[in-house]
Amino acid sequence: MAGLIATAVILLVLLVFLSRAVRVVPQARAVVVERLGRYHRTLTPGLALVIPVVDRIRERVDLREQVVTFPPRPVITEDNLVVGIDTVIYFQVTDPRASTYEIADVISAIEQLTVTTLRNVIGSLNLEQTLTSRDEINTRLRGVLDEATGRWGIRVNRVELKAIEPPPSIQDSMEKQMRAERDRRAAILSAEGVKQSEILRAEGEKQAAILRAEGERQAKILAAQGEAEAITTVFRAIHAGNADQKLLAYQYLQTLPRIAEGEANKVWIVPSELTRAFGGLAAFGGRTDGPDRTDGGQAR
C-alpha cells in the first residue's frame, strides 16, 4: 500500500514538473526566458522545454505589426499658428530581447518621440505647407522614428497624420477663401460658356450668310445662263429664218414701248440700220400704194 502511494506521488510530481517544463509558443509570438535572473534565450513558435524554478518567463512578445493612435497634440508652425495634429504609427517588434530590456514602456516612448519629432518638423513649415505636405511630413517622421527605435528592437513601418486642425479663425478664413475661389471659378466657367455660345452663334450666322449669298449667286448665274440661252435660241431662230431688214425693223418697233417703260431710260439709241430699214418700209409702202391709186384713177 505504501508503495502505491509513493508511486502516485512520484507520478504527480512528474506531471507537475512536465506542466511547468513544457511550453507551447503560438505562431507570431516570442517568449523571453531568464535563468537565475539573467537573460537566457528567446523561445520561438512551437514546443519548448524550460527548467522549473531555475528558468522564468520574463516577457511574451507579439511579433505582428501593431497600430497605435495618438491623440491630437498642439504644434506651432513657422508662422506662429497652433495646429492640432493626431498621428497613427504602424510598428513591429523585430528583436524581442531588445524590446524587453532596452526600453521600459515602448508605447509611451514612441508617443513622446513622435510628438517631439513632429514639433521639430512642423516648426520649419508654415500653415499652408503643413496642410499640403502630408507625404513629406510622414516620410520625415518615419525616418527619425525608425532610426531612434532601431536600438529598441522595433521597426516603424509607417507614420500617418490622421488629422490637422488649424485654429477656428483660420478655418473660417480658409472657408471664405475657398468659397470665393469657387465663386470665381463659377463666374469664369459661366463667362466661358457665354463666350462659346456667342462664338457658335456668330459662326452659325456667318455660315448662314455664306450659304445665302452662295444661293443668290447660283440663282443669278442660272438666271443669266437662262437669258443667254434664250438670246442664243432667238438669235439662231432669226438666222435660221433668214430674216431681212424689214422684219428686224418691225421687231425693234415692237420692243420700243418696253424700253420706254423704264424710269431711267432718258436716251434712245437708234441704230443706223434702223433708218435703212425704215427706208425699205417706206419704199415697200410706196410700191403698194401706187398701183392702188393708178387703178383708182383708171377706174374713175
Automatic annotation (TrEMBL):
One term under GO cellular component:
plasma membrane
Stated membrane topology is:
Single-pass membrane protein
Looking up InterPro entries in the UniProt record yields: Band7/mec-2_domain, Band_7, Band_7/SPFH_dom_sf, Band_7/stomatin-like_CS, Stomatin_HflK_fam
The UniProt entry lists the main location of this chain as: membrane
- Keywords in alphabetical order: Membrane, Transmembrane, Transmembrane helix
According to the entry, every stretch annotated as the Band domain falls at 20-178
- Name the source's superkingdom: Bacteria
Give the subcellular location: Membrane
PANTHER family in the record: STOMATIN-LIKE PROTEIN 2, MITOCHONDRIAL
Q: Which family does it belong to?
A: Belongs to the band 7/mec-2 family.
- What name appears for this protein in its UniProt entry? Band 7 protein
